[in-house]
Input
Amino acid sequence: MVSLNPRLLWLRNKIKNDPYYRFQSLEEIAIAQQLKIKIEVNSATVDDWLRLPGFSIRQAQTLTQLTASGIQFYSVEDIAAALNLPVQRLKPLAPILSFTFNDPESALAPALVNINTATPEELVTLPFFDQTLAETVVENRLCYGNYRHLADLHQRLGLDAQLTAQLMYYLRF
Output
């Protein structure tokens, strides 16, 4: 049952309406659980990991890099081992962590390439990338910094809307 405490109602509303809200406490994790908020561990971004209380940028980057390289997590114990943390520290976060597994050989789920770390050689292996586009992507990234999201890539490179729509299934940011 929802509490009538004004602070909790305000907090619940804030968490419900802000998909990037960074949880500050286990109380907020419990509210997120009530709202059925989940973080999909095997496709989580750095920003997703940083929503969890106590997570550092380095930990978030480590987990994101591991999943981007094809490593899948099956439990909270796996995450703890990857971060060299005691499992007890992560157990309270378990209610909002979701573990979905992908078959790496599946044609239905193509491997995503991190556009902010990929070389031109890696990019040309993707559908819709030719050598010119791959080199342009990397040169622009080196000159102006990492791409924040798909819209940033689209705008910075002046890509055709149709091409951007096709590329989004193969890129990770």
Notes: The chain is about 50% helix and 5% strand. The longest helix spans residues 131-144. Residues 128 and 148 are 21 Å apart (CA to CA). The two ends are 38 Å apart (CA to CA).
